[in-house]
Amino acid sequence: MLSYILQRLVYAIPIALGVTIVCFSLVYIGPGDPLSSILPEDAPQAVIDKIKAEYGLDKPIVLQYWIWLTKALVADFGRSIVTGKTVLAELVPALGNSLILAIGGAALGFIVGVVLGGLAGYYHGRPADRMFTALAITGVSVPHYWLAIVLVIIFSVELAWLPALGMTGSGATTFSFSTENFRHMVLPVIALAVIPTGIVTRTVRSSVAELLNMEFVEALRSKGLSEALILRHVAKNAAPQVLAVMGLQLGYLLGGSILIETVFAWPGTGLLLNNAIFARDIPVLQGTILVLALIFVALNLIVDIMQAVLDPRIKR
Amino acid sequence: MGAESGIVAPETRPFGLETWEQLMRRAEMRLFRRNFDMPVYKTLAVAMLTACAFGPVRAEESVLRVAMTAADIPVNIGQPDQGFEGFRFMGYMLYDPLVLWDLSKADEPAKLVPGLAESWEIDPKNDNRWIFKLRKGVTFHDGSPFTADDVVWNFEKVRNDKAPQYEPKQAALVAQRIPSVATVKKLDDFTLEILTKEPSAYVPYQVSFWFMSNRAQWEKLKSWSEYAKAPTGTGPWKFVSQTQRAKVEMVANKAYWNPARVPKVDRVVLRPIPEASARVAAILSGQVDFVEAPPPDSIPRLKSSGIKIVTNAYPHNWAIKPSRIEGSPWNDINVRKAANLCIDREGMNKLLGGLSVPSEGHMPPGDTWFGKPSFKFGYKPDEARKLMAASGHSAAKPLTVKIAISTSGSGQMQPLPMFEFLQANLNECFFKVEAEVMEWNALTAFGRKPASDKDAIAKGVNAVVISHALQDPYSAFERFFLSSRISPAGSNWGEIRDKFYDDMLAKAARTFDQAAQDAILQKVHEYAVDQAEWVWVTHDVNPRAISPKVEGFVQAKSWFQDLTPITLKK
């Protein structure tokens, strides 16, 4: 197992390096200029040059990459062009806020997905299966940006049950586990959970339905095992595949949803990225994308290892 | 319920449902009624009555909550970023310049009025020398007095890169706002001498964009990043706190030097909410009271909920800026006039839900500098086709033009639907309009380079749509029409080189009599319209959605607005 983990870790290094190159170069390939958002349209060239030098944007791109990479290795992603704060100071609280939504969305999505998918798989071909499958397809197909707006219209504007945006009514961006925080969480969590719910439902359904038709299940039944015990065996066999899907979904959720966080003005990484894109805040973009990508790589690694623990055949 | 208990029934919501707060309140009332006989409530009631009778009553604080379109809090140490929204919600609230804008009237364009300077005049013997008399008795929010030393220090902050307080981003943000100012010198504590590089009558306009940071506070902190944590100015609002990308809070400066502009609400909370639908949801759900730029399609919904929509024309234009470099199809005045005659501006106004003022020229109709141009636009497609035919174009042989446009952006209104409308109009007049669609930031970067730049040539772009503020003579005329202001030295993207503009604008800049200067600028405007220099389309009216409880707001004909007269109905 240790050699397997080491092997996976070694594989992750070139991936991480590739990620740094892609996320550094992508923001340069895009059109626009990071100084456009902070300088007036007709700022004199001398002033523009001075500011460029100030942010190191006057150096050749390869040199910029090298400087950025060596600093990024020690978690120094530079300073935001817009706010002047360190990228880390911007990123850490945003990451925490996205994590809160991700945990909520994942918990809701995974629980509902496993229950609905399990029921659909167990009652394969029956009305319950058709109903839950239809729900899952709807969940995957509905644009969550649209759904978020609909939720706001119904629950915030018309019914006025829940707040429409932000993390608190006062605009504070610190999660203090207050009732107010949780009320603000409800709509974004629901909007965020819809896609994972659909995907997990479909995955669990197909796994359960497939396993229930396998010979070992027939053998267990012929041995006289109860349905509950058979389902335990089925669940264990379905776990690696479902776990892989959940890991990926958790990765997506942790990255923060640009659209959901923008609609709900939730101060997470999605909103941070959205603002940074429009402001061409290159250091924030690069630092945030890199950290999120590395989290994704790490999550995949964890999922791979967990799969190997659950199903030792994967190691071979 | 209300009638029985003697308590006023809460406002009910559509579908007969109540708000979360109302539900909670109802639950509390039930609990209260059920338990009122209990001694603890009696004791509490007695205590409350006693407090009311003998103790001081702390009035409930009035808080105005504003949703800005900016994605972040504007820079707060003096010169704001985030365009004129930064000026509106940070610059003129926290700070004062020497000269201010009168934002108290909705029926006439905003004019310059004394700010930290009580008066100013040009030296009768030297056209390069201005004397500013400063207002006495003004203090910064920390109590330190404002004197001529502060103005000199603020000049060093943005012009002298050897000065300890020099801040490069601040310098960049103000550089083009005070281009004429060469030196600032203290004559005494309340008298300043400003020398200009060349005679410039626009100095009062220029200094209206230059804010005075607090020297005494910076001297204590010696750091702009520390200063940003608790900035102090002389403005009508005092900084309280700020959460980056989330909110900034200010309270009323009750000791403001102008009693007429002491804020009537106690506190204002400004929230950056760049997403338009989120801003609309925020006001509909009661999370904010004042929303900038609600999208036109949300207006009927907002009105049906009792939200007030306020608009007013202001110095803004949305126009096609043609390239005038050699070989450009727009060099033919017939083509430019035809394009201006072929746009159904009233139809465009309907498309925008009535939230625009159709252009009749470069400046909005009724502006001080509008004058009497002889070229009247109207919607005359037949006349336009005749002009195009005279220049050799026809339905079979249309003139291809390629216009760069953004998908969104500050002041761009609804760029893509508007562009499609324009395209349909112009294509009926022997044009074949193509689009080069860019994201806003990309378009502004594109617009920083002139029409002859290799990027524009490679893309085949021969016109751009970048909306503009026309707040003062420089921003309204000089930067667009002077040959010395070809991008990136100004905003003359099309590279217009016309001696008339160069001469007349130089003359206006040297004319210190306001009426005479206005007369020259009227001539410039008339000439620009008669030459059909651009294809003018419309002017924004800057819609704002305000809660019914907000009263007293006067929307000035300006990019800047004053929140100080606002009161909140209980």
Which keywords apply here?
heterodimer, A: mainly alpha, 12 helices, globular, B: about 575 residues, alpha+beta, seven-stranded mixed beta sheet, about 20% strand
Walkthrough of the structure:
The complex is a heterodimer of chains A (316) and B (570). Chain A is 73% helix and 0% strand. Chain A contains twelve helices and no strands. Chain A has helices spanning 2-29, 45-54, 61-72, 87-122, 127-141, 144-158, 179-212, 215-222, 227-254, 258-263, 269-279, 282-310. In chain A, helix 4 crosses helix 11 (269-279). Chain A starts with a helix and ends in a 6-residue tail after the last helix. Chain B has 20 helices and 22 strands. In chain B, helix 15 links the parallel strand 15 and strand 16 (431-438). In chain B, helix 12 (333-341) packs antiparallel against helix 14 and helix 19 (499-509) packs antiparallel against helix 20 (514-530). Chain B is globular. Residues 1-58 of chain B have low confidence and may be disordered. Classes of the chains: A mainly alpha (316), B alpha+beta (570). Chains A and B meet through helix 2, helix 6 and helix 11 of A and helix 6, helix 10 and helix 16 of B.
